[in-house]
């Protein structure tokens, strides 16, 4: 594929993966995704709604509704794509399974970037087969400029061995860790669910099409 950066002289594609419950998708997710896609010159950034997240309580609305909202939010955003593979799987959504299945569809030299917030990254040692993740992807950690960035002991050797200082210099299909500094918008799905449950407006926190869907389907009206 023709490159836009001049720095990567390769036909390999660079594909980012952002998982989440997206219950509902909101402008925090979307702005973050756009910024990462632009800074890293991603060919594609896939938002992957999770079915049964192993690390948290069940989403409040159905997988079908969460998927429909992500689809509405991304309409017309060419680089941002929705990927529904975790919703089709009849098992918990382990990232390692998702990455293996994505990898099986890509060319050998395509780059796969798993995008994680710092907190999620610090919890990595609790993930299923976490030590195999870097066989399939790079890890791009979104770091808040104000974050306390002391990594847990279990990750120190990995960081020392695999970190690269410049995220745009990630090379090869997988195996490295890079950090990108980003100030997240102060928005969360929890906050949006609470607003809606108490009859308040969530306008401008989610795309208008998502809000219309929420109202049309009577979502998030009960207690959260
Ligand atoms: P909840 O409030 O229900 O926990 P959430 O708003 O954190 O949900 P998730 O679907 O859990 O949304 O998040 C998916 C991914 O998006 C996670 O990696 C999370 O860190 C990231 N994310 C969530 N909110 C923001 C935000 N405001 N800005 C940037 N990234 C965000």
UniProtKB/TrEMBL annotation:
<keyword id="KW-0547">Nucleotide-binding</keyword>
<keyword id="KW-0548">Nucleotidyltransferase</keyword>
<dbReference type="GO" id="GO:0009435">
    <property type="term" value="P:NAD+ biosynthetic process"/>
</dbReference>
<keyword id="KW-0067">ATP-binding</keyword>
<comment type="function">
    <text>Catalyzes the reversible adenylation of nicotinate mononucleotide (NaMN) to nicotinic acid adenine dinucleotide (NaAD).</text>
</comment>
<comment type="pathway">
    <text>Cofactor biosynthesis; NAD(+) biosynthesis; deamido-NAD(+) from nicotinate D-ribonucleotide: step 1/1.</text>
</comment>
<dbReference type="InterPro" id="IPR005248">
    <property type="entry name" value="NadD/NMNAT"/>
</dbReference>
<dbReference type="InterPro" id="IPR014729">
    <property type="entry name" value="Rossmann-like_a/b/a_fold"/>
</dbReference>
<keyword id="KW-0808">Transferase</keyword>
<keyword id="KW-0662">Pyridine nucleotide biosynthesis</keyword>
<keyword id="KW-0520">NAD</keyword>
<dbReference type="GO" id="GO:0004515">
    <property type="term" value="F:nicotinate-nucleotide adenylyltransferase activity"/>
</dbReference>
<dbReference type="GO" id="GO:0005524">
    <property type="term" value="F:ATP binding"/>
</dbReference>
<dbReference type="InterPro" id="IPR004821">
    <property type="entry name" value="Cyt_trans-like"/>
</dbReference>
<feature type="domain" description="Cytidyltransferase-like">
    <location>
        <begin position="17"/>
        <end position="194"/>
    </location>
</feature>
<dbReference type="Pfam" id="PF01467">
    <property type="entry name" value="CTP_transf_like"/>
</dbReference>
<comment type="similarity">
    <text>Belongs to the NadD family.</text>
</comment>
<protein>
    <recommendedName>
        <fullName>Probable nicotinate-nucleotide adenylyltransferase</fullName>
        <ecNumber>2.7.7.18</ecNumber>
    </recommendedName>
</protein>
